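Board work, copied verbatim: Phospholipid/cholesterol/gamma-HCH transport system substrate-binding protein
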Amino acid sequence: METRSNHVLVGAVVLILLAVLAIFTVWIARLGGTASKEYDIFFKQSVDGLAKGSAVTFSGVPSGQVKDIALWRNDPQFVRVRISVNDDTPVLQGTTATISGVGFTGVSQVSLDGARKGAPSITCPDQPSPNDCPYGVPVIPTKQGGLGAILNSAPQLLERLSTLTERLTGLLSDRNQASIAGILENTNRLSDALADRGPEIAATLAQTRIAIQQAGDAAQQIGQLAQTTNGVLADDVKPAMQNLNKAIASAQQSADTLNAAIQDARPGLQAFSKQTIPEVGQLVRDLRVMSQSLSSVAEKVDQQGAGSLIGQQKLPDYKGK
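↓ predict structure ↓
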């Protein structure tokens, strides 16, 4: 009975010591370890190669591990990945997460990068919305990495590759091959013809170069002529135009003066035309009659002498036979 009691006592003491040792070990581990923070990442892509315990790196530095992987119940297109990182990891505003492969082993890891100096840490707001912190921890936005881009674009790449293969097959049919061969043959003939006409082409190019040079000289001369013409217009034509304008102004002034004089002389001209001109006409007629009379008298004096003006003409004496 006493032996049995001793065994129970010894067993109880051993269990107490083991429990104390376990508690001490956990305490030591907590003292020696570092605190960690948890974040959620929602990937809209395949997470092949990622599993619980997979590494989490920040700019290539190991900083934590993956704690949980599950489909997001609100939207099955997304995969929720819960990660735990060291407390001193700078998960700040602007930090993004991607999935990257580790060598050629098929194992993947979560890569964080993009922290900016002075930016605030990613935290949950005081009143988080379902999109901010749906599971009570901050959410790190994603950025499509090289592996994710390849995996997401693989179907489109395969479809385009298939379409390209079909088009190449149709392009390389027997008929098209014959056409391509004809085109190549014509190209060879054209190349040979151009090679044979090389000297003529060179001469033509030389003449073209000379013609272009002459055209440039002619354009320069035309420019000089235009400058000279502008100078002549400025030096000679403009003063002449000014003198002509002055002459026109003077002529206009003279015409105005003449018009005024005519207006003033118009009453006298009307009286002259109505009274004086008829009287002058009558005077001219009288002078014409008087002139005729004087002509008759002069003729009579010439024929009969001055006595004819005093008496009558004496008849000759008649003598009988």
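The radius of gyration is 66 Å.
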